[in-house]
Automatic annotation (TrEMBL):
Protein's organism: Candidatus Amulumruptor caecigallinarius
UniProt superkingdom: Bacteria
Protein's name in the database: EFR1 family ferrodoxin
PROSITE patterns reported for this sequence: 4FE4S_FER_1, 4FE4S_FER_2
Taxonomic placement: Bacteria, Pseudomonadati, Bacteroidota, Bacteroidia, Bacteroidales
InterPro entries: 4Fe4S_Fe-S-bd (IPR017896), 4Fe4S_Fe_S_CS (IPR017900), EFR1-like (IPR047964), Flavoprotein-like_sf (IPR029039)
Residues forming coiled coils: none
Length: 261
């Protein structure tokens, strides 16, 4: 069983491939899975492992995924192993350790923890922007090439960690990540201009957090339930969405299959 959280399509893309390679069902973590986790229950098929797939957020586990892991009712064999495959623009910090701790907190056995570098989606801080198209294309090719080995590692059920933690991992994950969770996961800085009412931001939002009025002038409204995935910002073909002034002059990236060809 694969659980996949993805705001901009990178993680969803490789989760789809791994689902085919491993013959595991893929559940996309969005909508009720995230907003009403307490009422959800999942039976893991006999003999199957669980694979957790999500993007790295601020060198840690996205808070929406962390909460899902803590709250979901899971029925599985006693010897079921849990694996992690994250996607990230550059480096993961100590995300693997954070995830192993979450697994241990549920009494689950964590096996492999792997990271795949993919195009960056983060634009909210000074100095951070999406990759230029050539870099994005290169990262996608590398990611696709890495998948057979990622699948083999999962099949081996070994407790291995294969991930690029990067420099200053402790500071990034233990100091900056808690700050990010406390202060940066807020939708109240989103606003839109020149909206044409296409509804793509509403559809892409994994938290069902955006509403749109049904006649011109169109203007999306953000509720309180945001995973800060930036799916809404990145998917808007008009580049109509901004996050305070942080995204002025920043680019957009959303996975489209053609890029990986
Ligand atoms: C809020 C946020 C924080 C991020 N933090 C990191 C990070 O700490 N390290 C990193 O390498 N990439 C970071 N990224 C980039 C994403 O992890 C990466 O682009 C990922 O592949 C996006 O996956 P998705 O398309 O499934 O949403 C961040 C992206 C967002 C939206
Ligand atoms: S994606 Fe952009 S143009 Fe479409 S409804 Fe949302 S803000 Fe408006
Ligand atoms: S409001 Fe935007 S950033 Fe927040 S969860 Fe929805 S799509 Fe992601």
């Amino acid at each position: 069983m694969i659980f996949c959280f993805s705001g901009n399509g990178n993680t969803r893309c490789i989760a789809g491939h791994l689902s085919q390679m491993l013959g595991h069902e893929l559940i996309e973590l969005r909508g009720k899975w995230l907003t009403d986790t307490g009422s959800c229950r999942i039976d893991i098929p006999h003999g199957e492992d669980v694979i957790w797939m999500f993007p790295v957020y601020s060198w840690g586990v996205p808070p929406a995924v962390r909460d899902f892991i803590r709250d979901i009712k899971l029925q599985a064999d006693a010897d079921t192993c849990h694996h992690m495959v994250v996607t990230m623009g550059d480096d993961s910090g100590l995300t693997d350790k954070m995830w192993r701790k979450l697994m241990a907190g549920r009494g689950w056995t964590s096996a492999s923890a792997q990271g795949v570098i993919m195009p960056n989606t983060y634009t909210l801080m000074k100095g951070f922007d999406v990759d230029n198209p050539d870099v994005a294309r290169h990262k996608l090719h590398q990611a696709m090439n890495a998948l057979p080995s990622v699948a083999d590692t999962i099949r081996s059920r070994k407790c291995v960690t294969s991930i690029h933690r990067g420099s200053f991992a402790w500071i990034k994950s233990r100091i900056i990540y808690p700050w990010f969770v406390k202060y940066a996961v807020t939708p109240h800085k989103f606003h839109a201009h020149d909206c044409i009412g296409c509804g793509r931001c509403v559809q892409v939002c994994p938290m069902d957090n955006i509403t749109l009025n049904d006649s011109a002038p169109y203007s999306p409204t953000w509720g309180d339930r945001c995973a800060i995935c930036l799916g809404c910002y990145n998917v808007c073909s008009r580049h109509a969405i901004e996050y305070s002034s942080a995204t002025a002059d920043k680019g957009q990236y959303h996975y489209i299959p053609d890029l990986a060809d």
